[in-house]
Structure formats: structure tokens, C-alpha cells
Amino acid sequence: MRALVFDVFGTVVDWRSGVARELAPFLSAIGRDDLDPFALADAWRRRYQPAMEECRTGRRPFTRLDVLHRENLEAMLADHGITGIASADLDELNLAWHRLDPWPDVLLGLHRLKRRFFLAPLSNGNIALLANMAKRARIPWDAILGAEPVRAYKPQPEAYLRTAELLAMRPDEVCLVAAHNGDLRAARAAGLRTAFIPRPTEHGPGQTVDLTAEDPWDWVATDFVDLAVQLS
After folding, report:
1. Which of 35, 115, 176, 201 has minimal Cβ neighbours within 10 Å of its Cβ?
2. What global pTM score does this model have?
3. Is 209 left (phi over 0), alpha (psi -120 to 50) or beta?
């Protein structure tokens, strides 16, 4: 194994807290303190998979995630009776996805893993989003990979196979690290190795999915530091 590639939203960063943090002052500014920013973050995220599915099925050409997020934001706000917001304000709020914080174990674990392995995101996020996130949070990627360079959204096989091709590696020389069993199943089907990291609060305190490893993945670790120990 020569490279580790990482799911980002939920595995590397706490998207729910970060998005809610940016929604809170926005809601206050427009006089909608009656709305829960965490509930709106969840509502925004629920539109994530359906939007990408339009691209996966070919009903829509491949469209970078920033554009999908922006469309989903406007639709989500309209669902809650919020309309007429200036386009520039919506554009700024959409950058919440660029400013997400890593889980506490991530930076130390990645720096230790970087000693032996090539590290890159294999995320549905686009290049600018992932690069801005990494620059702000000092995430030590060796390259920015993912859906935009390969023009395919996970769990399409092309997302995994073309990433290995970009690295000039065989699929079995690459390991996907993810907190989502479904993502790992698709990666394994494409020939990648797999490592599961639980993030039991990704969806909040009532999370019921992806609490444990559901399949015999190549590695199961408590966090990124533990994964670095196992791979050392």
C-alpha cells in the first residue's frame, strides 16, 4: 500500500457543527432566531445526495459541488420561508463548506501517516473547496484529488478507479479511509483497500448510522492516530 485517500465530510471534518456555526449569525441577521441552525444544516445536507445523483445518472452534466451546494442552499432556505436574500450573501454563506474544522485527532494522525504514505482527499468536494479547507485548517494533503479531477461522484466506480490512475498506482495500492460503510463498500468493489474510522456524532447526538464497522474492512481504528499506529 502506497497511498491513503480520505473521505472528507464527516470523516476528516465535522461538517454539521461548522455549517451550523455559520448559519447561526445569518439567521440572527435576518430575524429568524426561531430556526435551529443545526436543523438547517441537516436540511441543507439532505439535498447533497439527490443533487449529485442527477450528475451520476447523466440527467445533468458533471457539476462541481460548490454549485450544487449553492443551489441547495437557496432551495433549503425557501423551504423555510426565507427568500429575497442578496446573492452575495448567499455566496458567502455557501463558503461555510470551505471553513469546516477537522475532528480533534485528524491533524496529528495525518502528520504521522504522512511519514509513510501519500495522502489525498477522495471527496465529492471540488478542488477549490478542499484546498481552501486544507489551507485554513492546515490539513497536510500531498495533493487535492476527488470528484472534480475525475469527473465522477462517489460511489461511482470511476471515482475510485480514476483516482488510482491519477496516482499511477494499482487500486490495491490505495486505501480509502472513511467513516461511512457504504463508501467503503464501493471502494472495495473497485479494488481499493479499506479503513473504517467511526464518527458517531457526525449527524448529531441521535446518530443511528455508521456507528460501527459493518463489514470486515482491512483496518478498523478508533481515530486517525490509532490508524497511524496500526499502519506503523
Report:
1. 115
2. 0.96
3. beta
The Cα angle at residue 59 between residues 53 and 63, in degrees rounded to 5? 65
**Model pLDDT, residue 55:** 98
When computed from its CA atoms, the radius of gyration of the chain, rounded to whole angstroms, is 18
For residue 152, what pLDDT band results from cuts at 50, 70 and 90? very high
Q: Are 160 and 187 in contact (CB under 8 A)?
A: yes
Cis? peptide before 205, omega within 30° of 0:
no
Q: Mind listing the pLDDT tens digit for each residue in 113-145?
A: 999 999 999 999 999 999 999 999 999 999 999
Which triple of cell numbers denotes residue 92? 458567502
Q: Rounded CA gap, 223 and 78, in Å? A: 38
Distance separating alpha carbons of residues 43 and 73, to the nearest angstrom: 9
User: What's 6's DSSP letter?
Assistant: E
Q: Is the dihedral of CA 39, 60, 159, 71 positive or negative?
A: negative
CA angle 50, 139, 19 (to 5 degrees): 40
Exposed e or buried b per residue across 148-178, where buried means at least 16 C-beta atoms within 10 angstroms of its C-beta: bbbebbbbbebbbbbbbeebebebebbbbbb
